Amino acid sequence: MPNVEPKLSIGLWCTAFAGTEVFGSATRPPLDPMDNLRLIARAGAWGFNFHDDDLVPFGSDVQETDRVLQETRRVMDGEGLVASMATTNMFAHPAFKDGALTSADARVRAYARQKAMRAADMGAELGCSVFVMWGGREGLEVEASRDPREALAWYRDGVEFVARYLADSGYGMQIAIEPKPSEPRGDIFLPTAGSVLGFIATLDPAVRDRVGVNPEVQHARMVNLNFVHEVAQCLDAGKLPHIDLGAQKPGRFDQDLRFGAEDIKETFFLVKLLDDAHWDGPHAFDVKPYRSDTPDDLEDLVRGNIRSYRLLLERVDEFRADAEIQELLAECRVDAAGVPDDVDALRAFAFDVDELAARRLPYQRLDQAVVELLMGVRR
Ligand code: GCO
Ligand code: MN
Ligand code: MN
Q1: Which CATH superfamily, name and number, covers 7-313?
Q2: What residue's CA is closest to ligand 1, atom 13?
């Protein structure tokens, strides 16, 4: 049995992705948001995530916004679906062509804050627990265009503003900043989980507790980082309110492939890490259909993520119950019996370094056992 039953969610923008990219136009018709919610529920997800504009068309007035939110609520209740995470689209509109919270145009920065406030209102209305801030346009191509220290200061002002707005409005949502190294900008500010953790440490202490990281598998693997270690660092800092899951071949553009579709071993250790940590935040699939998918394939995309997550959790159970693996793990650890703690005694202590160096580590067998476990031949 897993330590925690995972809350599995998916973004409305994932299933609604019609296939438009730089080299080609849409391959699927638009997907109505309410039909999208029903599809996600039918495929077995616990919850859904949305940008303001995924649910309510850009530029809608207050009445239209309220109408859509009420309809959403009705569908959620009918389908037993949870609104997990809300976020602001601060990247699609041409007004954000050179940044949102880090734009050198102070009017754009103010407009971005306004849009974030409205998105937060929508999230609170639907009962979301997390507010993601992905700074897709927060970056540059022309290094000469701004002093990155100034951009980071604007970024900090923007995040603190949103965090204060949530607090002042009595909203319980946690902010989760999502790092990404590039795409759509040539260079995005806050490229890795470590960068976001460092940035959070500089926030006003009055709002710092409300802000964490939303790391994404694909964004770390785009730049060949060990995602399991990125997530471990967020957990260690108590800063993991949310996680974006998917799959990615290393060193490529953001592929947003179905969870489990690449690097099964690292993905297994990610699932294991989250369950070992008893982490009970929302597990969000942030994936895209293939351009070749038809509308009928979208449900398979959602189901595939869920199934792979659950299957890997079963493999985690097997890892814990595997006598040989547990024995090998026990062999890997040695306590410091006989070694003094005391500073003076430790300074004087004579280590047998040859013995330390000669210790045998059963890593060939351990890693092979994991590979075989994942191949399904140890049951
Ligand atoms: C990406 C990002 C986005 C964000 C989402 C939330 O694919 O580059 O992951 O999908 O997570 O837009 O703002
Ligand atoms: Mn992505
Ligand atoms: Mn994401």
Answers
A1: Divalent-metal-dependent TIM barrel enzymes (3.20.20.150)
A2: 134
Is the minimum distance from the CB of 87 to ligand 1 under 6 angstroms? yes
> Of all protein residues, whose CA lies closest to atom 9 belonging to ligand 1?
286
- What average pLDDT is seen over the chain? 98
Cβ of 275 closer than 6 Å to ligand 1, yes or no, is no
| pLDDT at res. 151 | 98
Residue from 131, 134, 218 to probe ligand 1 pocket by mutation (most atoms less than 8 Å from CB) = 134
Cβ 260 vs Cβ 304: under 8 Å: yes
Which atom of ligand 1 lies at the shortest distance from residue 244's CA? Answer: 11
Residue 331 makes CB contacts below 8 A (sequence gap 6+) with 361, 362
Instruction: Give the start-to-end residue ranges of the domains of the chain.
Output: 7-313, 322-375
Catalytic residues, which ones? 51, 54
Of the chain, the percentage scoring pLDDT greater than 70 comes to 100
Query: Residue 153 C-alpha to ligand 2 middle, in angstroms?
Result: 25
Question: Strand 174-178's sheet: what is its strand order?
Answer: 211-213, 174-178, 130-134, 82-87, 47-51, 7-11, 282-285, 243-245
Alpha-carbon torsion (375, 275, 84, 214), positive or negative: negative
pLDDT tens profile 143-194: 999 999 999 999 999 999 999 999 999 999 999 999 999 999 999 999 999 9
Please state whether the predicted TM-score (pTM) of the whole model is above 0.90: yes
Q: How many alpha carbons lie under 13 Å from residue 230 in its C-beta half-sphere?
A: 27
pLDDT at 270: 99
DSSP lists the bridge partners of residue 178 as 134
Residue 294: pLDDT band by 50, 70, 90 thresholds?
very high
pLDDT single digits (tens) 102-142:
999 999 999 999 999 999 999 999 999 999 999 999 999 99
- Atom of ligand 1 at shortest distance to CA of 256? 7
Nearest CA to ligand 1 atom 1: 254
For the Cβ of 286 lying below 6 angstroms from any atom of ligand 1, the answer is: yes
The DSSP output letter for 139 is: E
* Whether pLDDT at 379 is above 90: no
Nearest ligand to the CA atom of 244: 3
